[in-house]
Write a structure and sequence with these properties.
The structure holds two protein chains of two kinds. By secondary structure, chain A is mainly β. Helix content of chain A is 0%, strand content 45%. In chain A, the strands form two sheets. In chain A, strands 2, 4, 5, 8, 9 and 10 form a six-stranded mixed β-sheet that branches. In chain A, strand 4 and strand 5 form a beta hairpin. Chain A starts with a strand and ends with a strand. Chain B is mostly beta strands. Chain B is 0% helix and 54% strand. In chain B, the strands form two sheets. In chain B, strands 2, 4, 5, 9, 10 and 11 form a six-stranded mixed β-sheet that branches. A five-stranded antiparallel β-sheet of chain B has the order 1-3-8-7-6, with no helix packed on it. In chain B, strand 7 and strand 8 form a beta hairpin. The chains are: A mainly beta, B mainly beta. The interface between A and B is medium-sized, with 27 and 26 residues.
Chain lengths: 116, 113
């Protein structure tokens, strides 16, 4: 079946511009996560959506970052007034959350963002 | 919150040898420990996981061990092959409705042919 998809796969932007990154999770997955992976670094948690609950935004690095999840499915991560340090791969994952049995996260291929 | 440490950052082994990757965690309440493999240009993929009610789990050439007392867990890969070359991430969490994983920084495994 279809996995997690992300678009675009690559994005090059100029400093100061806004960007939107899209994530389509696996159908039926109620949990959706955004991570940032900088060169040679691990997975930095950004934000977590679970069903209709208020999102966990504790990982967002600044107020320039925001995310929405419409209709419990597609999510958009928006970065306003991009800075060079925002350059990274942005990964989205989804899982069948709400259970204590299986927390496996299925990752998309990521969006590589380059801020010039 | 949870803190997961993963050392070293790189590991090189000869094809056919075994590789062991170690992680430590800080939250004694964590009870779920997955390992993810990330190949170049792709997102991470779950390869094996372990829960705190067992000490070891095997799946063909890979195994994971857990020491709850010492708060560390390890990934063991036997008979390594070039296709095992990738970045491996460990993670930890308490399971539950609002749980989220805390990942280590990853280790780059290189298998020399």
């Amino acid at each position: 079946g279809a996995g997690v998809s992300q678009s675009p796969s690559n994005k090059v932007t100029e400093k100061g511009k806004d960007v939107e990154l899209r994530c389509d999770p696996i159908s039926g997955h109620t949990a959706l996560y955004w991570y940032r992976q900088s060169l040679g670094q691990g997975l930095e948690f950004l934000i977590y959506f679970q069903g209709n609950s208020a999102p966990d935004k504790s990982g967002l690095p600044s107020d320039r970052f925001s995310a929405e999840r419409t209709g419990g499915s597609v999510s958009t991560l928006t970065i306003q007034r991009t800075q060079q340090e925002d350059s990274a791969v942005y990964l989205c994952a989804s899982s069948l959350a709400g259970t204590s049995v299986n927390n496996e996260q299925f990752f998309g291929p990521g969006t590589r963002l380059t801020v010039l | 919150g949870e803190n997961v440490e993963q050392h070293p950052s790189t590991l090189s082994v000869q094809e056919g040898d075994s590789a062991v990757i170690k992680c430590t965690y800080s939250d004694s309440a964590s009870n779920y420990f997955p390992w993810y493999k990330q190949e170049l240009g792709k997102g991470p993929q779950l390869i094996i996981d372990i829960r705190s009610n067992v000490g070891e789990k095997k799946d063909q050439r890979i195994a994971v061990t857990l020491n709850k007392t010492a708060k560390h867990f390890s990934l063991h890969i036997t008979e390594t092959q070039p296709e095992d070359s990738a970045v491996y991430f460990c993670a930890a969490t308490r399971t539950g409705a609002n749980s989220k994983l805390t990942f280590g920084k990853g280790i780059t495994l290189s298998v020399r042919p």
